[in-house]
Amino acid sequence: MEDCLLPAISIDENMIIKKWYRFVKFGEKPTNLNEKIIDSWKRSKELKIDAYGEGKSHIILAPRELKKKLDRYKKLIGFISPYIDNIDKIIKDLGCIVFLTDNEGNILYVSGEDIVLKDFARMYNFREGVAWSERAVGTTAVSMVMIEGKPVPFMADEKYCYELKKRACAAVPIRNIEDEIVAILGIAATTPIQNPQLVGILMAVEMAVENQLRMLKMNEKVRIVNEYYKTIFDSVSDAIVAVDRDGIITDINQTAKEILREDTDKLIGEKVKDVLGFYPVILDVLKTGKELSVNKTLIDTKNKKMHYKIKKVIPIMDKDKVNGCINIFEKEGIRKSKNTAKFNFSNIIGKSEEIVKVKNQAEVASKNDYNILIIGESGTGKELFAQAIHNASTRSNGPFIPVNCGAIPKDLIESEFFGYEAGAFTGANKNGNPGKFENAKGGTIFLDEIGEMPANLQIRLLRVLQEREITRIGGNEIIPVDVRVIAATNKDLIHEIKKGNFREDLFWRLNVIQIHIPSLSQRKKDIPLLMEYFINKYARDSSKCILDKKALNILMDYQWPGNVRELENTVERILAFLSGDTILPEHLSDYMISPGKYNYYDKDCSLDEAERQIISRVLDECKGNITKAAIQLGISRPTLYRKLKDRGIS
Fold first, then answer.
1. Pairing, β 484-489 against β 444-448
2. Domain end call among 499, 516, 533
3. Tens digit of pLDDT for each residue in 441-492?
């Protein structure tokens, strides 16, 4: 009578409905039922939802509010509707509809067969703009997703309204990239029993839609980042050129565009070698993925050649692969800096086993702070290695002070090294003057031709290396010096020690790490690569300059007593007089073409005697012209004068 029995279903036949009935009628808490469902029933009862009513929602959005909602969700509905259309095809003839609500449970989109759509609209007012939240119709799959934030498989008996128990529904949340629920996607059926596989389809659509939302958000973030990047990219004063892994320009900034005097569209897609002429400098970065910094190079633009300083070449990495690099450079002279090292390991051209081995050894040596002794013939690149070691070390931000021990006058050499106080000697600066070691504080001092250092200075140098402090000439103050010493020589110092010309204890202080640079004759495989590099450096149009095969064979057979410096001078001299585009044998010096006619020294003689013979022959060839002879030998004029005196050559 007043007890409203559940029509058409026996309470004893359905335990969930029985528990629901006792809860609604007597307030009896159900047992062995999901606590989340029980909590929702309690809230539905508190909201005064009519448990025995029609199951219709009477909370409806005003037309203006619905329009705002649809406009806001237009993009989401636009790319979710194709998925809903696919679900429609699957559920056709199953008496189901697919729907989408906002995060508050308001229905925004409904799809299905017309007859089923009309049935849901007539029976439950289920249509666009109608609220399907807990406060509207009590416990449903939609309301459970809103509260719990998890997918809800098909439910029927668990609903709060009795009329809604007759129809099963399932729902899943749609989340954005911030993991917030932005919408709810669901399926409703005309029967209380439904195929659970349809829930799997819903969840698959959920993942696909969420992925699209993430992509849209990421694309928007990327677009914003790109706008920031482009603004910053074009506003910095340094010139920036980005290239891919093949050395193709992918982007340049406004400063680089102004320097190169070309439209960006014309440069993007071009080979950086063709546009800038410094591909050899960044080649190692593209191959090794190691950052390069501080280096001078010649940029040969289509308008003119200009000297630029490469501040950094930064690799762009994709996991362990190099995808390209960013080149940051400035015109030389924009920021002048004294006592800086110009070269890096990337400037040491060569792929032969001999030079690669030495480069690797030097790179390892650069990571510690030990003294280094570099041994090699004149023109092999001893200072180049010293600068590269400095720039790869922790002292790279400090000064690099090169000193040619054989070029400083003997009466000034001590004051040059250790400085002097005011009035220390006649002609001294009235304010005094710091020496090379003080100037090198925090950095590296490079002592070239260390074998030429006078004996008295060797004693003082030994003390500096032991005590790490100096005293200026004419002064008493002890000045600590934090300096790394790299020394270099083309002499056999062990032989000099035996002759009494060099201190053994100083040798061992300097020779903590020894690096022996191979002569060019010991790494002839690098000659073609070096030729290409110097042609690119000095040729007016390197792309058109060809090295004849016969000429290359002659260059490969030649012994190169002046080493890389002689090779560079040879290329520069050839290009200065080259009228065509091809370097032929006739453009080479006679002593290269017919080396037998120009035997510079007896191969069985000592090193000193060989040097004496070479100098004498070159002087004869240059008709006594010291400047020409020094250039051909690859040494400075003061060094040549000293060698003439030491070897007794008149």
1. parallel
2. 516
3. 889 999 999 998 888 889 889 999 998 898 888 888 888 888 999 999 999 9
- Report CA torsion sign: 396, 398, 399, 402: negative
65-96 in b/e form (b: 16+ CB < 10 A) is: ebeebbeebeebeeebeebbeebeeebeebbb
Q: Of 310, 301, 378, which is closest to residue 343 (Cα–Cα)?
A: 310
Identify the three-state secondary structure at position 202.
helix
What pLDDT, in 10s, does the model give residues 17-28?
A: 899 999 999 999
Q: Are 534 and 571 in contact (CB under 8 A)?
A: yes
Residue from 220, 142, 138, 127 nearest 181 by CA: 142
Q: Which residue type sits at 85?
A: D
| Secondary structure letter of residue 452 according to DSSP | G
Tokens 């005196």, residue located: 645
CATH classification at residue 420: 3.40.50.300
Are 246 and 222 members of one domain?
A: no
pLDDT above 50 for 399: yes
Can you tell me the distance from the alpha carbon of 334 to that of 330, in angstroms, rounded to the nearest whole number?
A: 7
DSSP state of 106: B
First to last CA, the chain: 139
Q: How many helices (DSSP H) and strands (DSSP E) are in the chain? A: 26, 19
Query: 612 in a domain, yes or no?
Result: yes
Instruction: Record the tokens describing residue 529, joined without a space.
Output: 């690569």
Q: What is the CATH number of the domain that holds 174?
A: 3.30.450.40
Element (H, E) at 107: strand 107-112
CA dist 331 and 340 (Å) reads 16
Measured torsion, CA atoms of residues 247, 248, 252, 258, in degrees rounded to the nearest 10? 90
Rg, Å, the chain Cα set:
42
Chain centre distance of CA 344:
18
